[in-house]
Amino acid sequence: MSTITLHDALGQALAEEMRRDPRVLMFGEGVATKRTDLLEEFGAPRVRNTPLAEGIIAGTAAGAAATGLRPVADLLFAPFLCFAMDEIVNSAGKLRYMSGGQFEFPLVVMAMTGAGWTVGAQHNHNLEAWFVHAPGLKVVMPSTPADAKGLLKAAIRDDNPVIFLSDIGLLFVPGEVPDGEVVVPLGKADIKRAGTDVTLISYAKTVHHCLEAATALEAQGISAEVVDLRTLKPLDEATLLASVAKTGRAVVVHEAGGPCGVGAEVAAILAEKAFASLKAPVLRLTGPDVPAPSSYVLEQAFVPQAPAIAAAAAKLLNSPALV
């Protein structure tokens, strides 16, 4: 076991997968500059910077995948994916289905997302729900270095396009990563803390806020279970339903805005498939439906924090029971 940052965990995953499979290559905005160790080991043919042209980068990745390579394309910031929607959504996400399974598109599109670096609204926009809604794509948002490494390895090995979003506020937060080969399967949530009274469901940085809230709730005699989705598509419904069947209450927390977000989908699943277990309405705690601010203080206010999460969970314990 070693303690490294999420950024370094991603670097380990890339290096290991490039050693394991010569078809894996990486290109994008500044990748050879940011990851000089990969450039030195694998050379310019497999690790290269590109022009700042996201549509061309994503289109090249889709074409490379169709010809048998396994590209990893880094588009830097999540809002830049707007320039590559046709290539990612309309080509990579659909062509395997349209070909009747004759083609595979094993590509990973990486980008940073979320608050933490005060980069402003045009560089900070949580777009994960867009891609969850797009057929043929898988979507990953890890909360720890260990999960980031294991999920990236799984994403590179997958035969479908995967959107891999790294929470910018977590990139240089250290965490324990197991030594040796570790692959975290896509579509499997993780119970980060067991509990019996309420389920806190989240992903990326707000998982840590939920864990802080769970500690505060414990002091009030409330046992909170924290479920980290890890993969937003495919979604691990079984883990969600099992947790809520045990606790009877759920609070869904994420930084992205509420309308049509991942939390709305989770709440709908629980309402449709776990209604008999619910003792109170499902609550959503999300970021506001406004562009992200550039001020650090406002950024922190933008993201649901532990005190608000704890208050929402405590409110559920005092809600009238559903009939």
Condensed summary:
This protein is an alpha/beta fold and 323 residues long. It is built from 13 helices and 14 strands.
Which helices and strands, and how do they pair?
Blueprint: E1 2-5, H1 6-20, E2 24-28, H2 31-34, H3 36-42, E3 47-49, H4 54-66, E4 70-77, H5 85-92, H6 95-98, E5 108-113, H7 128-132, E6 138-140, H8 145-157, E7 162-167, E8 174-177, E9 190-193, E10 198-202, H9 205-219, E11 224-228, E12 231-233, H10 237-247, E13 250-257, H11 262-273, E14 283-287, H12 296-302, H13 306-317
Parallel strand pairs: 2-3, 2-4, 4-5, 5-7, 6-7, 10-11, 10-13, 13-14
Antiparallel strand pairs: 1-8, 6-12, 9-11
Helix pairs in contact: 1-8, 4-5, 9-13, 10-11
Task: Report what the structure shows.
The chain has 323 residues and is α/β, with parallel strands linked by helices. It folds into 2 domains: 2-177, 3-Layer(aba) Sandwich (Rossmann fold), CATH 3.40.50.970; 190-317, Rossmann fold. The chain has 13 helices and 14 strands. The protein has helices spanning 6-20, 31-34, 36-42, 54-66, 85-92, 95-98, 128-132, 145-157, 205-219, 237-247, 262-273, 296-302, 306-317, and strands at residues 2-5, 24-28, 47-49, 70-77, 108-113, 138-140, 162-167, 174-177, 190-193, 198-202, 224-228, 231-233, 250-257, 283-287. The strands form 3 sheets. The chain has a 7-stranded mixed beta sheet with strand order 3-2-4-5-7-6-12, sandwiched between helices. Strands 9-11-10-13-14 form a 5-stranded mixed beta sheet, sandwiched between helices. A two-stranded antiparallel ribbon has the order 1-8. Helix 10 (237-247) packs across helix 11 (262-273). The longest helix is centred in the first third of the chain and has 15 residues, at 6-20. The N and C termini lie far apart (49 Å). The model has no long low-confidence stretch (mean pLDDT 95).
